[in-house]
Structure formats: structure tokens, C-alpha cells
Protein 1
Amino acid sequence: MNFQARAIEDALRAEQISYRVMGGISFYQRKEIKDIISYMRLAINQDDNVSLRRVINVPPRGIGAATLSKIEHEAKKKSVSLFAAIKTILKVNGVAQSAREKLGGFIKLIENIASGSYKSAAGMLSDIVEQTGYIEFIGEEKAENVQELIAAAEDRDINEFSDTAALVSSMDVMNTENSVSLMTMHSTKGLEFPVVFVAGLEDGLMPYFKALQSNDEIAEERRLFYVGMTRAKDVLWLTGTKKRRLYTKMQEQEPSRFLNEIPPHCCQTIEKSAALPPVVMPVKRVIQMKKPLLYIVGARVKHPKWGVGVVRECYGDGDEQKVMVNFPDIGIKRLCLRFANLQKI
């Protein structure tokens, strides 16, 4: 999905790996991202004429080209910024009453944001979104991009984040033949690549949460997933995460249900867990026999709360054995056998 691009683009830039966005535009080049960053920069520096021109009528507040022309004329005459020129015009009643109210509201908005007390750039961005009503002005996909920008600003200094985001948004993305291609699955049709990474294979993203209410829509998501898989000529990586920051909150994620439809012998599974503290191993080699797995793939089990399900995977050793069970009405659940209270059927 488009909002995932921010983290991937940031990582590629940090590693100085060239990339190109196909079938779309870079995350920081998107209009909604530039708009919100411009609000932030104007609140920080009210002499920023470029940012003011961008947001003075975004969302639409009825400040037209004629009014802006008067403001620019006043600014040029007095050799002041556009923001200062607006304040002068308001003092001397230099525009019609309707325009006065709109300009006054804009000045008050920027000053309210500028006077706020924020612990991080994320707090300031959230306040901008709330005070401007920007989310109501844009569609759902663009709103997800704005929320991703706010998540990226957590624990970041306001001035540093503002400068970095503005710099990135003004740069041309490195666009060479030998580069990583970024795209959504919808943009992949007809293309092939030696190596393909499909990122975000979690229920809620693939299939998308809105598709979960309809079997027809789930079937369409499955078809789209198949299209993405078959773009790979040589190597295909299917990746997902156990935790993801969505809408500024960390959420537990379940693997995409489509992964369970891939025959196990067709792929190799790698699970990355949190780093464990270093362990000093004895010189003497000790061989420990692992306890057999309690369940086999395909076994039917019963859970006291979720009912009957089918085991899709069993792994681990001893008391730490875990299973992934597909419950028809619930979906995939990852359970530790010590606590799951499962019953074999």
C-alpha cells in the first residue's frame, strides 16, 4: 500500500540505494505530505512565503487569486513577508469584509499552531491536521499517508524534522536503470523482475481489512496477490511483521491468510525474533534431543473460545512449542501450547 513507501524510501535513502517509484509518485512528493509540511514550516517561520502560498487556500477557504494579488502587492510595497502584509491589510481594512474574515481566520490558525506546546514533531503535525480539518478534505488513501507522516515524526525534533522532510520532498529521486523499483501490486501488471519483495503480507493489508466482509472481495485480493507473486522470475520474498505502527499506534499483526494456501514444500520460512542476550556456551559439546511436535500440519483442534480449527504450522521445542491455527470464523491465530488449552479432535 502507498503509505508503506515512507519507511522503505527512508531506508533506501539512508543506505544510498537508488530507487524509482513506478505507477505513482514518491511518498514525500505527494501533495498531502507537502501541504502538511508547509503548514509546519509556516508555523515555525511566518516569513516563509513559499509555504504560505501553498496552504493559504488549502483546504479551500475562499481566498482567491485577486486577494492573493493584493497581498503580494502590499508585501512588495512594504518589503515585508506575505504573512506580515496580511496583518497590515487587516489593520487598515484593505480588503472586503468577507475576505477580511477569511484572512483573519487563516492568521489566527497559523498563530495558534505556532504558539502550541509540543513534545515532538508528531504532536505538532497532529495539531495541524486537527485544526485545519485537512483529513476531512482528502480521501482515505491520502489520510493514511498523512497518518504515516505523523508516525514518522514520533520523538523527532520539530525543526530538524521540518528541514529534513522539506529537503527530501524537494529532491529528485535517483532514477537509474540499476535501481530498486517501488510500486503497489496494482501497478505490477505486465512487469517482471529477477527478484521481488512483497512487503506487508498481514491480514488487514493483504487482504485489505475492507475486503474481509465479502468472499468476492477476498477472492479479488487473492487474485491480486497472485499477480504480485508471479512478477518474480528467480527469487520471491514474501514478508510481513508481527507488529506494525498504524495510525500512530502499535498493533499486533497476523500473517496473511493467503500464506497458508502456499504448499509448504514450495517455500522456505524464516522467522526473525527479537535479539537474545549473548549466551556463553560450554566447551564440551552437548547434544539435546528435541521433543516431538505435539501437532502435525492439517490436524483438527478445538479451542474453548474460537471453536474448531486446522493446524497450519507447529514449531518450537518442549514447553515453548507454538502452533498457528486457522479458525474459520476468526482467521489465523498464533498460540503457545502451554496456555492455549487446545483439544485434539
Protein 2
Amino acid sequence: MKCFAIMPFATEFDDVYTAIKETVASATLGQDITCLRLDELKAAGRITDDLAREIRESALCIADVTENKPNVLWEVGYAMALGKPLILVTQAVTTLPFDIQDVRTIPYNRTSLAKTLRQPLAEAISQTLARRESSRQTSALVGTNEPSFLPEFRDGMQEIIHLLRNTRRRLYVMCDFAGYAHFSELDTFEEYWKSLLAAIGRCNEVKILLYDPAFYRPAREKQFPNFERVRLGDNYKRFLHRWNLSDFRDRDGFLQQLDRMEKGWRTELRKLADVQTRSGPFWMFHWLNETNRVVYSIQPTHDPNDEMVFQADDRHLSSALSDQFLRKLWPKRKRTKRTE
């Protein structure tokens, strides 16, 4: 998980950022969470793209609204629009803009950061993350084996990426390449793909089930019904730039490019793992088998675009999926040992 610090880059705030970063580390001891600020990103590309991506992918944002800097307030507004958990800190509560006056804010004193910032911020972080985890757990139907719902695609993919990075022994994957994320969520897909390849190389046993390629074309046509509108969007422009492609004259050429890219990824996977395909719809997005941890989706119709990402830790559900996934699709299951 990520924690994004929204604040001025001025040197007089360096000690404040150090206090925030160290507090995040101490308050989330034992959790996989990283705190960063935008100026720490050095890769080539547009700064605003990096900014929007980091806020989207963050599980928590901490914003110093001292002096009401315009860029800070813009980022705060973007985080609020995305529904991100947001902790505000400031040196002057009385000067807050009207729009955020009702947001809980931690006032701090520059001469006493340990007492006025670190201590209350640590409590706020712990309670915020606890509430986030609690809301996930309680969203499941009590007394049933129903999983909890991850409502946002990006959050669902980040959960999958996190699990990929922590899967060490067995990796069972059912997917359709992240719901066209290679077009709509370029950065998330790249992070997912790298994590998937790393997990494949790390695990002793890897099984992957994909849709038959013929299943994708009608789904893609539904995904992009109006190509001219697609061409006007930022995703399309970023897609061309990222993959160094020329503008497509029609939808058919665009869909053929997506088909070629997916074919290339399938070819790569077949070199590395035991891959099977299925021509009919199946009802899971991803399944990562590691201590009965399951991430998957339920498709309520036979349209592969109807996808909802869920997660569950239920031991009985894991066992049932194992029976269906392994015994039916790989009836002669053999464990393989990784060669060093």
C-alpha cells in the first residue's frame, strides 16, 4: 500500500515531511505501506500524470494545508473526489478554506513536532487504516461465505498486485488481462504485469486459465462502441504515447492492435507457465492460492465485461474453488519443484 504526502516542497517543510514519513512507518509497523512525496519521483514523464496516479493508488493521503497553497488544495480536492482517506495537518486551523473547515485537521507547532504532530498523527493513521480494514470486512454478508466487494477497479487491481508480491509457493490465476487495463490503466497494468512475471518465477507451481482468444473480440467491440469518442480521450493519447503507436484511422485497426498485444502476452505466459484456455465464460478474475487467500470476480451474466472484483479469506470457499479449478481442469495434477 501507499501513503501519499500532499504538501509544499519548500525546505522549511522538510522537517515536517520527515516527521510525517517516520510517523507513518511507526504507526503501520508490520504493514506493507510506503510513504512518499511527489518530488521523490524522478522517472521521465509528466508530473501531473505522476501526481494523479500516486493519489489514485494510495490507500491513505496526508496533506499539510498550511498557508493554503493552491497546488496542495487542488491535490486535496482530487483525493476527496476519489474518496481517499485523507488526514489534514496545518500550522493554522483558523485560516482553512470553507470547503475543508469541517474536515478533521491536526494543528501542529513547528517548535514541538513530536508532541503536536507525531503523536496525534500516529493515532489518526492507526484509526484510519483500522476503519478502512473494518469496512472491507463488514461489507461481507454476515454468516455466509459471501466475499467482500472492492468497488473500485484500481483498488481491486492494487489488492491483486499486493497479493502477487506476497505469493511464494503456489500461484493459480484466472484472468482476462485485467479488464483491458493495458489500455485504460497503463501504469496499473505495467505494475500488475511485472508483479505477475516475478511471481511466476518465484513460485513452485503455477496454473493459469485464460479465455479463448475468440471470446475477446465481441467483448472488445462492446467495450469500445464509439471509436471517435475514444480518440478524444486522454487514455487513448497516453496509450499511443506509451506504446509508441501512430493514430488509428478506424476502430477495426485499433481493436486489431489490442488483439496483437494480448497475443504477445499470451505467448510470453505460455513460455513460463502451465496455461489453459476456455471458450465459455468462467466466474473468477484472479485466484492467488496462498494460505487460502482468494481474489476473484463474479460475472452475473455471460458477458465478460460484467465484472466485479471481490476478495475473500474463507477456507471452505478456497477448498471448493480448488476442487473446481485444479481437479476438473488439471485432473492429473502433478507438483513441480522449482530448479534453482
Protein 3
Amino acid sequence: MSSARLIYGFHAVTAKLRHDPEAIKEIMLDTARKDVRARDLLKAAEFHQVKVSETDGKRLDGLLPGARHQGVVARIEGGRKALHLDDVLDTLEEPPFLLVLDGITDPRNLGACLRVADAAGVHAVIAPKDRAAGLTDVAVKTASGAAETVPYITVTNLARTLRELREREIWVVGAAGEAENDLYAANWPMATAWVLGAEGEGMRRLTRETCDLLVKIPMHGSVESLNVSVAAGVCLFEARRRRS
């Protein structure tokens, strides 16, 4: 049985070309795409010696019903390699900078969080195997290429994983609306794992209790909370500012 999978959209396909071109079996490009993005993609594919097939847009629609593929689909040979946390931590030459997602079941939120994590320079995103969206086609598309560049690690027991991070002297910092500590006033070390839960529900109790520090994002308007990807951006870029 073939283990091939499809990724789509210019960001996702271009990122795969840049970081792992050997895994691409074929790129299918809508014959109607004659613009700059299409030409740049063709040049990159030629450079990496990746086959490009000009394909009717309706065929692409049939391959990915309802998806906004932008006229470009890549067939990837093999599934994603399962990553372990040690695979990432043992190779770092700087203090770890991690994002932990607890209870994020919307694939678009996951994709957006991956995109924010990539932009902030996060070393890996960690999530539980259960009660999590997983890297679906929708999540990968929303991530705009970040699903191919940011290690996404799933764990069986999130609380245990957080305890293991603490044993490695990585502070676990949770974002919670009811926290007493203000994000901009609180202090934390450079080695951190930032934990965010779903909007409304937040982190699970055991996850919250495992954190070394809880911080809140100060809210100055009438809304009480932010979308998880927005909250992740606020926290991660404040942490990145301090790391710089």
C-alpha cells in the first residue's frame, strides 16, 4: 500500500522544496497558473530536480475536494517521521524554546499556532495524541509551510512530558487569564516551554498544576480572551524579544 500523501498551497509546497526536496515525488501545477509565484515554483523545482506536471485545475479540485489548493499540489512519498522530544532537545545549541498546546482540537488553530511558532523561532511544538487536532490537510494548509519546518511532537501523557521538561531545567510557563502574574512583568529563564490551552476552556487542571509559572496577557478592552494562535503570538514574541 502506498504511503504517499498530499500537501497543497504555495507556502507548504515551497517550504517542502526548500527543506526536504527528496521527499517530493511530484508537483502538480494548474495549467492556468502563469503568474510570478508559479514561475518561481517551477524554477525551484527545476533546481532541485523535482518533477512538475501541468494539470487541469478541475483534477486538482477532485483530488482535494473543498480545499483551497491555489493550483499547486505536491505528492509526498512516505508519511511524516515520528519525532521524539529528545530528538530535538539533544541537538540544540541554545536554551530550548518550546510551544505546548493543550486541548487544541481545531486544525485551523493548530496550523495558525505552527505558523506563529515558526515565525518566533520555536524549536518544537508539543501536543497530546488525544484531544488534539493533529496534522490534517487543513492544519498543514493553514500553517503556510510551517508544518514542514517546525517539529510537531505528539506525546501520550502531556503532564508527564512537562515534568520531564522540568527535570531538564526547562521552565514550564502557562498562559491563563486568571493568573496573578502579568506577562510583561513576570520573569522566567531563557529555557522555557510555553503552554496554551483552547480559548474558553484553557489548560486542563493537571497541565495547569504542572506549570512552574502562570502568566496572563493584560486585556484592556471588553473581550476576556484571545484566540489561541493570537495568544501564542503575544507570548512567544515577548519571550523572543527577551531572548534577543
